[in-house]
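Sequence, please.
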């Protein structure tokens, strides 16, 4: 276990123990709030909730809230809100990506169809906003609206760049900021806000979580190449097949020869590994140290987050946040 400046960071189990009671309440809240007057929506919401998932965002929100003070019921409610927003983005994302698997099961779009899933996602967004409204805090609504628009813009930008080999590292980072880091940042800020923290603390926790979110998506994109389908709960190599050129490949392409670029172009054109096996592109990325460089970039983001966490006073929650940064980079799914 790595040592932070103030004490040992916590393991996954220890982090979970800290927030377990609250997480149970979060699940209850999500269950209660996912009931619509139309069965299809309730069914899809329940399917999403019961399919597992790491609950990273509610955990981050709860830990931030505890670090900043005590968010009480508000923190539990907002943790449910961010997980419901996450679920809504995932169900829409799987429609857009024509995904077939999520969290080791058929994705909702496969079981319930695109039309129902789009509507269920819309409903979930609105339900989450209605729940957030109960805080009677305009700052929270401001944040959630800006966040949701940012995430939608991210998905749209991604859509526009689909199949393009000219995506730069800067383009990629902008996308990751929008589609993932912004939600992580929002989780930490919301947790601090409901705990009544002052703006400085809200900002610091937000920035720290933003770095964590950047690292999280970078690792996710590396895992898309290196993990097993079993561990990941979704097929490997999906990003490239879906037309997304992510950081390991961006790095590799920077140094690739013409025939190697042609290999990637073929996969993007086909949208499959029929003509070029997945192993070939994997070998190409490895030979240009694409994974290594992307992981180093992820580590730089977690390093930034850790530096900021070390500035907070020592407490179990401070150590848990530190532990969370380790889980993000050392995971297999
Ligand atoms: C998936 O997020 C979407 C990304 C930002 C990569 P998670 O990997 O946190 O999804 P679950 O909730 O654990 O399934
Ligand atoms: C992440 O997008 C989902 C959102 C943040 C909306 P991806 O398409 O990269 O995520 P996965 O790989 O489907 O989980
Ligand atoms: Mg997507
Ligand atoms: Mg996707």
């Amino acid at each position: 276990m790595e040592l932070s400046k103030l004490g040992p960071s916590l393991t996954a189990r220890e982090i979970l123990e800290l927030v377990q009671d609250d997480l149970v309440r979060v699940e209850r809240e999500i269950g209660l709030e996912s009931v619509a007057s139309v069965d299809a929506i309730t069914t899809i919401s329940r399917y999403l909730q019961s399919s597992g998932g790491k609950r990273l965002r509610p955990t981050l929100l709860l830990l931030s809230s505890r670090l900043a003070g005590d968010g009480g019921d508000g923190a539990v409610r907002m943790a449910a809100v961010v997980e419901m927003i996450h679920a809504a983005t995932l169900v829409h994302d799987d429609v857009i990506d024509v995904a077939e698997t999520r969290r080791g099961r058929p994705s909702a779009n496969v079981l319930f169809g695109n039309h129902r899933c789009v509507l269920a996602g819309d409903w979930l967004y609105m339900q989450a906003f209605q729940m957030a409204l109960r805080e009677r805090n305009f700052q929270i609504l401001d944040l959630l609206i800006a966040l949701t628009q940012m995430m939608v813009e991210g998905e749209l930008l991604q859509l526009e760049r689909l199949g393009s080999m000219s995506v730069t590292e800067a383009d990629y980072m902008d996308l990751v900021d929008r589609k993932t880091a912004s939600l992580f940042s929002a989780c930490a800020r919301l947790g601090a806000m409901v705990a009544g923290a002052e703006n400085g603390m809200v900002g610091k926790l937000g920035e720290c979580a933003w770095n964590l979110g950047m690292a999280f998506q970078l690792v996710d994109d590396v895992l898309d190449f290196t993990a097993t389908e079993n561990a990941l709960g979704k097929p490997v190599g999906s990003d490239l097949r879906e037309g997304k050129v992510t950081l390991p490949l961006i790095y590799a392409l920077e140094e690739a020869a013409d025939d190697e670029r042609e290999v990637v172009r073929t996969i993007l054109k086909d949208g499959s590994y029929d003509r070029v096996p997945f192993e070939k592109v994997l070998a190409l990325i490895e030979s240009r140290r694409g994974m290594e460089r992307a992981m180093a970039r992820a580590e730089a983001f977690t390093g930034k987050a850790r530096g900021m966490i070390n500035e907070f006073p020592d407490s179990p929650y401070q150590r848990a946040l530190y532990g969370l940064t380790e889980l993000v980079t050392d995971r297999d799914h």
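The chain has a mean pLDDT of 95.
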